Amino acid sequence: MDKVSINESYSSSTYSKRVCSVESLETSTNTSDSAYDQAPMIPNNSPAVRPTTLVEEAGTFRGTEVAQATLTPAGALLKLNAYSTALLIPEGAIPKHQRHSVVLSIVRDDKHHVPVPTGPRSTYLSPVVFCGPVDTKVNKPIVMKLPHCAENLSNWAFSLYSAPDNVTAWSKVVTIGEETINTPALVQIDKRYAYVLTETFGKYVLVGESATDIQERVACKKLRLFICGPSTIPEFSDVSLRIYIVEDNPGAEERCRHCEQEIGGVVLGRSTVLHFADVGQGLIIDMQCVGGWRTKSTSERQTIPFSHVWNSNCTALHCSFTLCRTEHDKCDFKIEVQATQDCGTLESLSAIGAPATMSISSFVPMPKDGHCQHSSSSFETMTICSVGSGSGDHTNVLATDRFRLSKDVKRKLCRCLDPPTQKRNDWRMLAAHLNVDRYLTYFATRPSPTDQILDLWECRNRELNALQQLIEICRTMERPDAVAILEQIHTAPWV
């Protein structure tokens, strides 16, 4: 697989290369009207809603970590906004007249993590996400959106792991670049998100390690540090401060809050981004105190071994410092923390960036950020094409759980773009423009390739101007018939 990318989308290197890959595909494509009406009918006396059976124990999920919906043949879009995670179940995924209760959740508790059987240099890149019930059957692939913390995508070898429950061991579903026609799931990696196409419900996590296909390349992921402690300054006793080191994904702060709630602590501060590279060197944390406080131990420095950070298996890794008063009458209290990867003899390594820093000047809980705090100002992916400016600001992201394209519009687009054309400006060129042409062979096996491409587009592109971008792509493809279909969509409430 070509590791070079446009706008850091993990796909083909240039548009011309993508078109070449389109031309290599056989033109014999199923030209049916997609799979909408191919589902078998079931009797009207079937149960209206099948009960949901969660694999997690009662109490595992909290309100911000679980979304539930009733799935009908019209499909569903479940979102966990605090974690930038979503599950799209397309229209026609279940037969007519069926209804199922489905959930999407973040699995946080460490007791529910069976370690992924990865190598010594593998690391978690996404949260563990569950969609279920695991026995839910669909006749069209679902699309799951997972945030990831990988930097410099071409330096990574990505693998997707899954498990049906909390007892069964994880199994590797696919390694990107090693897909076959029988691979049970496909993964599209964009700059900040991974999109999983699968027909199987269960637990999923994205794992990565340094790529070694051509030459040894150093993988680097982004971390954040959170400092936690008591909500008020004790007058006479010592103070214990805990530092958590977590993947820089949306929901990192919420994850630390959850850990601290169990011991009565609060989140006091958040660091800048820490770039942590696969170089075998540990993490050095220095703490300095002023204003009548000092660390109780003789050292203000702690070193965390590389493997404890890199192979944390999604645990809320932390170290602690105990502070004691030196002067009771001083009030200019301030704590500064600096974290950096031990460069050792690797000082010239560009993967190791500037130290992560944070400071607190009071024991006041850090206010919750209403938006997903993340190092990137454009966390929402804008990698599908070069049309429009696309700031990626959260104010520019669609908040509704409605589908952009109705069943009727998709059916018309499928009839329009599924049949092969002499100019090759059909579904294959659409896939090339959307940076998903790595999966041309897979799309060709679907009843409607266009239908599957648009399902992936629907989940990847929730920006307000995404529909206009799609129209511009169709214009570039010289498909005025597709443009006319899209322009007939009435102005929606979110525009």
From TrEMBL:
Organism encoding this protein: Anopheles maculatus
Protein name stated in the entry: Netrin receptor UNC5
Keyword set includes Chloroplast: no
GO biological process, one term: motor neuron axon guidance
GO molecular-function term, one example from the UniProt record: netrin receptor activity
Subcellular location(s) per record: Membrane
Chain coiled-coil ranges: none
Pfam families associated with the record: Death, UPA, ZU5
All residue ranges annotated as the ZU5 domain in the record: 65-201
GO CC terms: membrane
Similarity annotation: Belongs to the unc-5 family.
Region (Disordered) residue spans: 28-49
Stretches assigned to the Death domain: 426-490
UniProt keyword annotations, A-Z: Membrane, Transmembrane, Transmembrane helix
Membrane disposition: Single-pass membrane protein
KW Membrane (keyword) present: yes
Stored SUPFAM superfamilies: DEATH domain
